[in-house]
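Need tokens for this chain, all 586 residues.
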Amino acid sequence: MYHSKPTRVSAAFAFVFCSPLLYQTPAAASNPASAPRPRLVVICVFDQMREEYLDRFKPLFGDGGFNRILREGVRYANCDYPYAATETAPGHATIGSGRLPRNHGIIANEWYGSRKSQSGREFTGRMYSVEDPQFAFKIVNIEGAEETVAPAHRNFHGENFSDRVKAEIPGSKVYSVSQKDRSALSLGGAHADGVFWFQMQPIDPNSPVLNSFVSSTNYYKNSTPAWIGDFMKNEIKNIPNSWESSVPPAIAANRAICTEDNAIWEGGPRLRHQFPFPTRVNGSVNWEVVWVSSIQLVILADFAKEWIDREKLGADDAPDVLWISFSATDSAGHCFGPDSLELCDIYKNADAQLDGLLKKLDAAVPEGKYVVGITSDHGVCTIPEDRFDGHEGGGHFLLGDSSKRTEIEKEFASLMKIPEAAKKNHVARVMDSGWYLNRDLLKQENLDYEAAASTLKIIILKQEGVLAAYTRAELQNEALRTKDPIARSFFNCYDPARSGDVMVALKPWWIPLGPGGDMAATHGSPHRYDTHVPMLLFGCGIARGKEVADPVTPLDLVPTLASLLHINPPKDCDGRILPGAFAAGR
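Here are the structure tokens for all 586 residues:
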């Protein structure tokens, strides 16, 4: 059976040994001020895209999408995130700013901490990465503002590239579109001209408001543009009755490309595990299927192209920016896994949508004065059951059952010499952002915080599937970070106000999910299947037909774009200009 490269455990650690230490000082601009600026910069983020997909899925690609960019642009074959929080929100915030999570503050999709309710009550709980702690904005659609509080960019520290463009280039326009709010907002920032994400309801009553692109009152005070209603009606009308595989049978049968389309662990608890997938039920759209299908790619690409036309992006000398974050690649990857036939179909269609976007840019932007960048927010781990079938190891890190948590509490009580502590929760929350101790309870029981954190670390390290664990004090030890690349990767996404008390790395090919969970595959580790992503540049002023082997990171995209546009990168940018990016003479 095929398993996605890299499959060796040694390869899982490759990024942390080859990547630079901290990414603190950006390179000076190397793009001469006399070089012509592109009129439009379009950055496509394919959520959850491994770099190796460019090679494995190549037989699915035509001449005009990914292959055109590979043929006529620059490929960075060793692009890796230098941090452990390989999730959507940190990835998009990093791509959009060129800054590390420890500096921009988006350390995970969500974290645990002190917050306020809408009524003003203070409590400790889950904080979503784009949650608005001030409740200042409302969701806005074509019918006006809703009562629902909108997500916002307020948890981000500092400025991003979109903010810098708006500040330095009079007349520039910046738009950001995605299916996910955290993706669109993290790229568009606080001052974009428009930021849109998809508001999905499970049942479609043929209302463009319930299943449509929405924004917030931060960008549109009264309502979103009226044309979006007609746009969505047309897109909904064109949704087929089922999602069928478009992969040619010979490729579908090639086990070097994908597994057989009959794995029972694909699809999660609610969806089928093989083609076809019904997208209409009793005449109504089944949005749950659309969300994980290639249909979602079409809707977003059409929406982005509509903005190019309506706003005449790239039509004058004031450079514009369009961010497009495709979420279907992530939702399908979670649901069916990176080796599935379903994901093959997703990338075949992603290539077709990219081809259509490039043709739109060819027609809309005079003299080809546009630049396209392609990258991803993270990769993904292979489904553990796929690896079991090949006898190569991996597993599920199980913490969801109450008995396991009770065992941990009992051992914590024993080691800390706490009487009858099994009835109390000294571990307040386990999240991707870390394991959080109940600090109020520690104070009540007069327990030393550092001792409690060290004790919890000892217990965690005994759990099956755990590779490493670090307390807050350890992450701040420079000597440890210098010799331990995994500790360094956690430090790069550590925020003292938001991170957990103990940070945990699982062994390669282990994922923090139980069997039967919503996601068959996931990400969020410092291993290379999660950190290694594509980085492609193409267009005006970019070198042609070039592959660069130098280690780079997604943090390097923004300073490169800033140099192309002859502006400063965001303040305190951690990235460097991508080596070899510019055509000779620039």
